[in-house]
UniProtKB/TrEMBL annotation:
Full protein name: Integrase catalytic domain-containing protein
Single annotated GO MF: nucleic acid binding
PANTHER family: PROTEIN CBG26694 (PTHR37984), PROTEIN NYNRIN-LIKE (PTHR37984:SF5)
Any GO BP: DNA integration
Length: 172
């Protein structure tokens, strides 16, 4: 499909997944307009499919990235075995190096946060000096260790999930 549309994706899901393999329990999609369309949401709700969306800019949710990482680690382990270095020692060094660069942002349900503005499709009237953050929003659900569902003050949920990298604490 050169240009996926909601109807095209619906037909693909029905013919290539449901008709061939049975109804899936869940679908994890990116936040493309074809996947967030009403047609796809209706298909999933009518067939009891849990529709989930991967967080933007969050490579851990990409299965292809995970598979590549697995291949990389297997190759690295073989090389370490050849030179006689301890895998555990090497893993400890790498973990220590990367963990010192990680900033944990523990948010709880009900916290007020700002979210990073969506830079794709932004109107060109905003200047480079305008804020990159918008809000405040309320953390409605904590879905995982670094994944959150946000809502506006009137209670309407935002249409996708957000990671701790895309939000920051709002101080009033």
């Amino acid at each position: 499909m050169a240009q996926p549309t909601g109807t095209g994706i619906r037909n693909f899901i029905w013919t290539q997944l449901v008709c061939r393999f049975s109804t899936p329990l869940s679908l994890i999609c990116n936040n493309g307009t074809a996947f967030t369309s009403r047609v796809i949401r209706t298909l999933c709700s009518e067939n009891g499919i849990n529709l989930s969306f991967a967080s933007v800019r969050h490579p851990q949710s990409n299965g292809q990235t995970e598979a590549s990482n697995k291949n990389f680690l297997n190759t690295l382990k073989k090389r370490l075995d050849k030179i006689g270095s301890s895998w555990a020692e090497h893993k400890r060094r790498i973990k220590k190096y990367y963990n010192k660069h990680i900033r944990r942002r523990p948010f709880r349900q009900g916290d007020l946060v700002l979210k990073l503005k969506n830079t794709t499709g932004r109107d060109m009237t905003s200047s480079k000096l305008s804020s990159n953050w918008e809000g405040p929003f309320i953390i409605r659900n904590v879905l995982g260790p670094n994944t959150y569902k946000l809502s506006r003050h009137d209670g309407t949920l935002l249409p996708r999930t957000w990671t701790g990298n895309d939000i920051r604490k709002f101080y009033s």
